[in-house]
Design goal:
The chain has two helices and eleven strands; from the N terminus they run ααβββββββββββ.
Length: 208
């Protein structure tokens, strides 16, 4: 009974509208909580953006490698077919970035070579800006069809050479039996310069 009377006297002294202390967050506590939440959220966003950047750059580098490999595969396949290299054909001239191939024509009925010594198609590879173009000029009796196509993009540099000498400086390209190719693909992603370089030496298998 004594404790009840004491509680009632204290209640009447405080008044009906008086709130007890500690019933909520103070302004300082609220500001600290907001600050901590902002720091945590900022850290999460930073980690996510870094991972996204790394993923995007990694995929771009894979694309560069694919372009370089695709270009090399196209050129290697045709160069192996070649009987010889030419100085010029169809308005194209040999240079460090342009190669002209004389390749045996293909019989459309059998798929065999018509005559390795007399009947030829012509295939030109040339760099056009950042693209690698393949131009086909076939013999009228060949299975190959005339076309100009882009076989690879993002070409940064291309060099055809023989024994370390650029093709543009070779006086007699018809005597070449092995052609060296150095190809670089390049791209700038998120202010980062990416590049991929491939080099190979290819033998002209149909060289007479």
């Amino acid at each position: 009974m004594k404790s009840i009377r004491s509680f009632l006297r204290l209640r009447m002294r405080r008044g009906p509208g008086t709130r007890r202390h500690g019933a909520g967050f103070t302004l300082a506590e609220t500001m600290v909580s907001v600050l901590l939440c902002s720091i945590v959220l900022g850290t999460i966003v930073s980690v996510f953006m870094a991972q996204h950047r790394s993923f995007y750059v990694g995929n771009s580098y894979i694309d560069l490698s694919r372009e370089a490999r695709m270009a090399m595969d196209w050129m290697a396949g045709d160069i192996r077919w070649a009987s010889k290299l030419l100085s010029s054909h169809g308005g194209y001239n040999k240079s460090n970035t342009c190669v002209i191939l004389e390749v045996p024509s293909i019989n459309p009925a059998t798929g065999d070579i018509i005559n390795v010594a007399t009947t030829f198609d012509y295939i030109i590879y040339t760099q056009n800006g950042t693209s690698l173009q393949r131009v086909v000029d076939p013999n009228g009796s060949s299975k190959r069809t005339a076309e100009t196509r882009t076989v690879a993009q993002k070409i940064g540099s291309l060099l055809f050479s023989s024994n370390g000498t650029g093709l543009g400086s070779v006086g007699n390209p018809g005597a070449i039996t092995n052609l060296e190719i150095t190809l670089t693909t390049r791209e700038t992603i998120l202010s980062q310069n990416l590049s991929n370089t491939l080099s190979t030496t290819i033998k002209l298998r149909n060289k007479g």
